[in-house]
Design a protein that fits this description.
single chain, about 5% helix, globular, mainly beta, four-stranded antiparallel beta sheet, about 290 residues
Length: about 290
């Protein structure tokens, strides 16, 4: 390590993900928290005070300088995964927000160019689900609901479909984002979840814990994989009975829609499966300089 990348960081303090628009000499970064805000699990006091990340930062990639802050508002807590359009001529991308302090919903926002500057707006909102108090972990009992907890998103290589992992409710969603400002829900499946505990077709009687988490999309857009572990201290808070880790595969239809591959259910037992990478390239590893 030779030193920090940025020459002028401006007001940026919190950080998490980063991606770029190479054709625009622009870097985008998101926010989660400092290590002591996340390493022992979510801190309820910090969360309710809106202290976790809620902004994106725009950087001059060539000059390594901060140029703009896109603040979503303090009620939007934990702006995590960034997924820009793969086409380098398209100046937009999506970010997932874990939870809103207003109503426990999760949301997806689009950043984009607007009259020579960058702007951001909400394009998807996923509501919390009411739940029986006895079925909730201690952290959520006071809310009487299960938040979606969007922890990962992914954009297909042709920039047509956006995939969203709702780690809290156990739902996995597919949206057609051909018009990125007006997404259309085209597919949904459930697996695991804090309360729902949805089963896999391979073993319909087994109630699963954890939920859709890190997601990966094949280059051809036909195969979707996701795992169920977020981060061990957070796993314990939201799934106190422990995470029994697994990896699954979905088949995506070219016109939209999702189905489980009934034969593909890989269990890791005491190991925690987190990130998926596909040999030869995948939708969140590939970046392009030219259309």
């Amino acid at each position: 390590m030779l030193g920090k990348w940025e020459i002028d960081r401006g007001p940026q303090y919190l950080a998490y993900d980063f991606w770029w628009h190479l054709g625009y000499d622009t870097l985008i970064t998101s926010e989660w928290g400092t290590p002591n805000m996340v390493e022992s699990g979510v801190d309820p006091d910090l969360l309710l005070k809106g202290k976790y990340g809620h902004a994106l930062h725009v950087w001059d990639l060539r000059r390594r300088r901060h140029v703009q802050t896109l603040d979503l508002g303090a009620e939007q807590q934990m702006a995590l995964e960034l997924r820009p359009a793969h086409d380098p001529g398209r100046a937009y991308g999506f970010v997932g927000v874990v939870v809103s302090l207003k109503d426990l919903s999760s949301s997806i926002w689009i950043w984009h160019r607007d009259n020579g500057k960058w702007a951001i707006q909400k394009v998807i909102e996923i509501p919390a689900e009411p739940a029986d108090l006895d079925a909730l972990p201690p952290l959520l009992k006071g809310f009487k609901a299960v938040p979606p907890l969007v922890t990962d998103i992914n954009l297909s290589l042709d920039d047509r479909f956006l995939y969203i992992s709702c780690w809290g409710t156990g739902e996995f969603r597919q949206y057609d984002v051909s018009d990125p400002f007006h997404p259309k829900l085209t597919g949904s499946v459930h697996l695991g979840g804090i309360v729902r505990r949805g089963a896999h077709p391979k073993n319909p009687s087994a109630r699963l814990n954890g939920g859709p988490q890190m997601v990966e999309v094949s280059r051809d857009g036909r195969r979707i994989y996701f795992t169920n572990s977020l981060y061990s201290p957070w796993d314990v808070q939201f799934y106190p009975d422990g995470i029994h880790s697994w990896l699954v595969k979905l088949d995506a239809k070219p016109e939209g829609g999702l189905e489980f591959d009934p034969r593909f259910f890989l269990e890791f037992k005491d190991l925690r499966s987190h990130q998926v990478r596909l040999e030869g390239g995948d939708a969140s590893s590939d970046s392009y300089c030219y259309s």
